[in-house]
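Changelog note: in this version the structure field was regenerated for every chain. One regenerated record is shown below for reference.
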Amino acid sequence: MTVLLFGFEPFLDYMENPSQLIVETLNGNVILNEEVKGVILPVEYDKIEDIIVTKIREIRPILTLGIGLAPGRAKITPEKIAINYRYSREGDNAGKKYRGERIDPLGQDGIFTNLPVEDLVDYLNQNGIPAELSLSAGSYLCNNAMYIIIREARKYNSLGGFIHVPLHESYAAKLQRPIPSMSLDTMKRGIKLSIEFILKGKKENLTL
């Protein structure tokens, strides 16, 4: 089986995206005997669904995890719920905006992740990784991707969810405004620990 990771390309004022850097680093790694496959998504509403659906169908991963940048957050934040809603003040990388449309016209209003995110937050903090539970993935591309990831993972009885990360320190230092940040190494370790924790729990349940 495989772990499938999705990250995002740069967008808006953020010419480097830590989610892309994390996913590219972990691509090809083996974590608890599971190979990690990393895919970088375009920040374009019209493209991400086909990519996510196709990759999950092709790979049939044990775990699909989206990683996204949440500028302004200071901690790693596993997301609890994705909402069936698109709204953006800023356009995507193709200039497209949504003003309150549904992601899936026939889908549920919201979908909870089947990842143990409350326990994951505790685990990360216990291992020196600042983490906090998030109850909103927003209404931009990250929430859109999370909704599709969870919906598709359910079809194959697998795990699906999303984790937001702060801006990385090296890029925050280039900006001409104060913004929370975290070292890229800490974020990479946090995501790797998250995968280990989730897989360990899944495999323990399979052997009970």
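Spot check on this record: Helices lie at 18-26, 45-59, 117-126, 141-155, 169-172, 184-207. The longest helix spans residues 184-207.
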